[in-house]
Every structure is written in structure tokens, then in C-alpha cells.
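Recap from last week: sequence in, structure out.
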Amino acid sequence: MTETKVLDYGKLPPQAIALEEVLIGCLLIDAGVISRVQSIVTENSFYKDGHRMIFKAISDLERAGKGIDIMLVTEKLRSIGKLDEVGGPFYVTKLTERIGSTANAEKYAQIIQTQFIRRNLIRFASEIEKQAFDETIDIADTIGLIGTTDFGIPQQLKSIKEIAENNFKEICGKVNGDIDIYGIQSGLDIDKITLGFQKQTLAIIASRPGMGKTAFMVTLLKYFNEKHIPAAVNSLEMSVKELAMRLLINGTGIHNEQIKRGQLNAEELAELENITEYIKKSSLYINDKSGLNLNQVRIFALEMKRKHGIKILLIDYLQLMSGVYEKGKIQNREAEIAQISRGLKGIAKELDIPVVAFAQLNRNIESTSRLPILADLRESGAIEQDADVVLFLNRYEKRGIMEYPNGGESTEGAMDADIAKHRNGATSLKRLVFDKETMTVKNNEPISW
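Predicted C-alpha cells:
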């Protein structure tokens, strides 16, 4: 953008050329000013082309550890062929003539940055309007721009001193029992290791098909419902109707085939009605639209956080999602999955909640008798990299292996929950029970802390 550009509706964009001149003058007479304003403005913050070039030259000299004054900056601009473009040596010298003090340099920088943000907002609004009129563009992608556009708002830098002090206070609170150490718990034995699903983390729960991922997820939802924990689910594989049916079966303890066939006596029907009424009061929110992309999942999560205060987001399952493509750019599946896993981690941080994503493993695990390993995660090593927790579900019985390797113990009805990665703690394997009649995952014994 140049200083002569006029907006479509006849107005000059927001700018503060006079303050740009003063700020650059401050930089030219006091080399220490650059360190004071670097966290506020960048070269792009300046409206006038020449001022951007001069600021860049000053920044380059500072990064190179060289001095900053009128002569050095002029020579730098001459060496890169920009001196005449900025107005020559006379203009550079003239910028220092009005400077009596550099005390207010930060204030000048803040006003310049505010005008830059205003210009960005105007351009952004124009782009949103343009895309909203274009019916060939997915509206979710347009809405997604709102959360991914950098308006030029400076980052809020945090002092390590302040963070260290807050961390110490948090630890003291845990020691004194004033702060709960647990995240969103699952009600299963894995909580002994993970202390629940923690805020701002991405947990991956992976297995081959038929190992019990959906049963595991429904068990989590049942527990969240019992504890009145608001939760949102993106169910890309199973419909809301199917999920609700699984919750009913899970809640009653009645054989799933009896319920599906309607073979219930009066007592069982009454139990089913009680569970139905209980589920109707739940704080579970399910989106079963298939083929969702990363932006659509983010928009759904933001809306559920705003409207219902969700504490956790579940995705079933990661490989059924799609990424966000740039126009005309072909993206391979591995890169797309990497984008999705990074995006889900970003959602966890943005909403300050745990995100739990179910995922598929590679087929080659089926030809072995071993437990899954991180390399078995399907389509991308980025999933392993981005995840804070990776938990593998395995049922040897489902794989036709009726005794545990090296142990001889029966695998009937057993589910292994193997925490193979735990960024903030230990790894461990917990043996759970898979009830085929009710499609339920249970603990071997009640949890005792």
C-alpha cells in the first residue's frame, strides 16, 4: 500500500505519516530506540513506502550488530539501491530536524501500529465481503479466515519470571489441596497415569477397526454425562442416532441385540425409559456431518464453547477429516493429515480444553502378534509429533490370539489400553475389560486413589 492509495469508497486508508516521520527521526538520532519499539512495529506497519524501506535498513543494521546513525543508514540504503526511492540523503537527514526528545517513541509506535491494524481490518472486511458473494467458495472456509488472519496485532510477550512465579503458586496450591490436579477424567484406569485429559492438550486414541474405539468413546461420553461435564463430539463415522443408541445400551447394561430387536420385558423397558430421560438432560453436543474440514471443526468447537461452555472436544475419527486447501495447490494426504493434527492441537490451545481424536492404525499391525507402536499411526508421523498423549487400544481376542504372548493368560474379554506417549508423564499399559454384550469398556476393578 502506498501513501497515494484511495479506498474504494473515496477515503484515504488510516495512516499517521507525520508520526512515522517523527519515529524514524528518533531512530536515527538514538540507536537505543530500535530495541524499545521492535515489539510494537515492524517495517510493514508504516504506511509510506519510503518509511518502510528506512525502517528495514535500520532493523538490518541492528540485527547485524552495526551502529545506527544518519550516515550508516544512508549508506545502507545506497548499497541496496533504495536511497533515491526514499527521497535521497536530504530526506533522511530532514527526518531528524524536528526531534527534540525520543522519550515518547513508544507512543508514536503504538499509534502507527494502530493505524496499520485499522488498514488490515478494512482489507480483511473487503475480502470477507468478496468471498461471501462468491458462491463457489465454501462458507466455512470464509468464516475460518476470521481465526487464521493476522491483523498485525502485536503478540503479548510474557515474562519467564512471571510464569515461573505462577507455576510455583500452582504447585503450592496442589500441595495444599487448593487446586485439583486432575483434568477431565475418563473414569477408567488410564486416569492413574494421565490424571485425566489436560487442558490445551491433544490426545490420540488409535487402533485398527473393530478394536473398540467407538465403545471406548461412548464409555467416555457416558462418564462425562454422569459427571455433568459439557462435551462436544464431531462424529464423522457414526450418526447421532447410532451414538444415542450406543449410549442407551451402555447405560442399561442390557444386551445390545435385545434392545435392537425390541425383546424387552416390562422391567427392562422401564430401565430403558429411565436412561433415556437421563440422557435427555445431558450436556453432550454431537455434530455428525461427514467430510468435515479443519475449519468446520474449529467453527463448531468455538460455537459449542461460546454457547455451552464445553470442557472437552472429541473427534471420531481423525483420518475422516479433510484439511484446508489453498486454491490451485495440490496437497498429498500425509501433508494434509499433518495440517489436521497441528490444527487440532491449535484448537485445544485456543479454547483451553483437551481435544481427544480417535485415529486408525496401519494395516500391517494385523499380521503381527505385537502391540501397536507409534510408527503404526496411519498416514503421518506428524500425529505422533503433535500429540501430547497417544493411547493404543488392542484386543488380542479380536485378532484371533486367545492367549497373551509370553504369559499364557486368556485374552477373552480383555482390552489393552497402552499409553505409548505421554509428553508430561509416564507411559504405561492398563488392562481393561471389553463387554461385548453391552459394547462397554470397564475397569478390571474400581479405581482407588
